[in-house]
């Protein structure tokens, strides 16, 4: 078998066989196939796409290129949640204890943030002494004993994806739905969950900016999961503005804890309840959607979900006093108001721009080597649909410099103020395959 023949076949919009896909994935992973040939195939896939079967096979080969995590020693039905990334997206901090509060084990391998999206591990590490490094046995024991563990990825999961993603990044082939779907799902499938709920974002702060593209990606990932033996659904949710009011690591922990303590941060609470409901349905804990939703909402009100979160933080070495007294979490030196230049209604907030502003403050990373400042971030004072007067704050920047000009300018540009109140503000667009 020759790589040039595989490239030619896909260039001519023909389907690749299992043997051809295996030859490519294995050969590129171990270095026998050079970058220039892999790049040529990726570009052919970018233009001609892949069939449902091809995409499932590509994902399967990427999973098999490295280690897989065996979670069979964990009692119960393991359901994983994955978000395609957004600004202010701290749902895992709410969803994990919420799902665990009804007896569903949550065994989650998470990542760090890169770019304008924040990583779950970075948020958790803003809690003093929280330990994200657990070996496989510790990870399994924590889930069996406490119903939750969240840890950094260990082992050599989907190394083919790591190499291919780096190549896609420099060859303008990132935004191909089959390649995005196989990249995300290879890591999820290697992580060992029985079922998967995907939170696919759409809008200005999402990877997929249009609902049409987000739905196509969601459909593709659901098909891959189901074709490879994992019951998978996707929730398409809005990212045309940040989720909740807080952006930044310790800020987001505070807001998540407040929701767990009963505060009604509407969009954040509703999305967390939707994702948790779908996860418990996949785990067959409840018979109907309404039964699941009501039980989970009750566990937010009665403190059971918050108790699970405290137990989880303590089990992984975190200082629970920081959770009980939120003002002791890391904070910034300066709190700078960004005021509205005009009267009107907030018609739009560019979520990506808000994320970039938070990154300017030090809440995110431009490269993997960058250090996170846990205390900095942004608090939104207004959201889409809110009325605002000239001189009223749109947001508050939490910074360690007195005048962060780039962040201030970026936040001002992110807000669009209009005379008319916006309508048709949506949070959840669709659940696939429901």
UniProtKB/TrEMBL annotation:
<dbReference type="Pfam" id="PF00591">
    <property type="entry name" value="Glycos_transf_3"/>
</dbReference>
<comment type="subunit">
    <text>Homodimer.</text>
</comment>
<keyword id="KW-0479">Metal-binding</keyword>
<protein>
    <recommendedName>
        <fullName>Pyrimidine-nucleoside phosphorylase</fullName>
        <ecNumber>2.4.2.2</ecNumber>
    </recommendedName>
</protein>
<dbReference type="GO" id="GO:0046872">
    <property type="term" value="F:metal ion binding"/>
</dbReference>
<dbReference type="GO" id="GO:0006213">
    <property type="term" value="P:pyrimidine nucleoside metabolic process"/>
</dbReference>
<comment type="similarity">
    <text>Belongs to the thymidine/pyrimidine-nucleoside phosphorylase family.</text>
</comment>
<dbReference type="Pfam" id="PF07831">
    <property type="entry name" value="PYNP_C"/>
</dbReference>
<dbReference type="InterPro" id="IPR017872">
    <property type="entry name" value="Pyrmidine_PPase_CS"/>
</dbReference>
<dbReference type="GO" id="GO:0009032">
    <property type="term" value="F:thymidine phosphorylase activity"/>
</dbReference>
<feature type="domain" description="Pyrimidine nucleoside phosphorylase C-terminal">
    <location>
        <begin position="345"/>
        <end position="418"/>
    </location>
</feature>
<dbReference type="GO" id="GO:0006206">
    <property type="term" value="P:pyrimidine nucleobase metabolic process"/>
</dbReference>
<dbReference type="InterPro" id="IPR013102">
    <property type="entry name" value="PYNP_C"/>
</dbReference>
<dbReference type="Pfam" id="PF02885">
    <property type="entry name" value="Glycos_trans_3N"/>
</dbReference>
<comment type="function">
    <text>Catalyzes phosphorolysis of the pyrimidine nucleosides uridine, thymidine and 2'-deoxyuridine with the formation of the corresponding pyrimidine base and ribose-1-phosphate.</text>
</comment>
<dbReference type="InterPro" id="IPR017459">
    <property type="entry name" value="Glycosyl_Trfase_fam3_N_dom"/>
</dbReference>
<dbReference type="GO" id="GO:0004645">
    <property type="term" value="F:1,4-alpha-oligoglucan phosphorylase activity"/>
</dbReference>
<dbReference type="InterPro" id="IPR018090">
    <property type="entry name" value="Pyrmidine_PPas_bac/euk"/>
</dbReference>
<dbReference type="InterPro" id="IPR000053">
    <property type="entry name" value="Thymidine/pyrmidine_PPase"/>
</dbReference>
<keyword id="KW-0808">Transferase</keyword>
<dbReference type="InterPro" id="IPR036320">
    <property type="entry name" value="Glycosyl_Trfase_fam3_N_dom_sf"/>
</dbReference>
<keyword id="KW-0328">Glycosyltransferase</keyword>
<keyword id="KW-0630">Potassium</keyword>
<dbReference type="InterPro" id="IPR000312">
    <property type="entry name" value="Glycosyl_Trfase_fam3"/>
</dbReference>
<dbReference type="InterPro" id="IPR035902">
    <property type="entry name" value="Nuc_phospho_transferase"/>
</dbReference>
<dbReference type="GO" id="GO:0005829">
    <property type="term" value="C:cytosol"/>
</dbReference>
<dbReference type="InterPro" id="IPR036566">
    <property type="entry name" value="PYNP-like_C_sf"/>
</dbReference>
């Amino acid at each position: 078998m020759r790589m040039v023949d595989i490239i030619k076949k896909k260039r001519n919009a023909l389907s690749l066989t299992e043997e051809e896909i295996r030859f490519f994935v294995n050969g590129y992973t171990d270095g026998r196939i050079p970058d220039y040939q892999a790049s040529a195939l990726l570009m052919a896939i970018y233009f001609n796409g892949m069939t449902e079967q091809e995409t499932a096979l590509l994902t399967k080969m990427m999973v098999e290129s490295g280690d897989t995590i065996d979670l069979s020693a964990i009692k119960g039905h393991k359901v994983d949640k994955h978000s395609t990334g957004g600004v202010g997206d701290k749902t895992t901090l709410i969803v994990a204890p919420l799902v665990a509060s009804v007896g569903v084990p949550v065994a989650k391998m998470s990542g760090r943030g890169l770019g304008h999206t924040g990583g779950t591990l970075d948020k958790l590490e803003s809690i003093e002494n929280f330990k994200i490094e657990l070996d496989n046995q510790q990870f399994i024991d924590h889930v069996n004993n406490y119903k939750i563990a969240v840890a950094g990825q260990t082992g050599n999961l989907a190394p083919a994806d790591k190499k291919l993603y780096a190549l896609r990044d420099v060859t303008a082939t990132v935004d191909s739905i089959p390649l995005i779907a196989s990249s995300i799902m290879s890591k999820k499938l290697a992580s060992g969950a029985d079922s998967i709920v995907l939170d696919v974002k759409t809008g200005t702060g999402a990877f997929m900016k249009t609902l049409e593209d987000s739905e196509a990606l969601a459909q593709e990932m659901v098909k891959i999961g189901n074709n490879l033996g994992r019951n998978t659904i996707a929730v398409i949710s809005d990212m045309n503005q940040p989720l909740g009011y807080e952006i930044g690591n310790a800020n987001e922990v505070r807001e998540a804890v407040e929701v767990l303590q009963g505060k009604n941060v509407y969009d954040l609470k509703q999305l967390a309840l939707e994702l948790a409901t779908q996860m418990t349905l996949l785990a067959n804990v409840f018979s109907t959607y309404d039964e699941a939703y009501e039980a989970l909402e009750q566990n937010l009100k009665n403190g059971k979900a918050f108790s699970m979160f405290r137990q989880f933080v303590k089990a992984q070495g975190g200082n629970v006093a920081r959770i009980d007294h939120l003002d002791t979490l890391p904070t910034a030196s300066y709190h700078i108001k960004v005021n509205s230049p005009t009267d009107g209604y907030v018609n739009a907030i560019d979520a990506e721009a808000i994320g970039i502003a938070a990154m300017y403050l030090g809440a995110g990373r431009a490269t993997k080597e960058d250090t996170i400042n846990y205390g900095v971030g942004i608090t939104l004072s207004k959201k889409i649909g809110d009325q605002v007067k000239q001189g009223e704050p749109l947001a508050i920047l939490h910074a360690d410099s007195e005048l962060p000009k780039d962040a201030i300018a970026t936040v001002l540009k992110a807000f669009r103020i209009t005379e008319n109140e916006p309508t048709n503000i949506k949070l959840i667009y669709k659940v696939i395959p429901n």
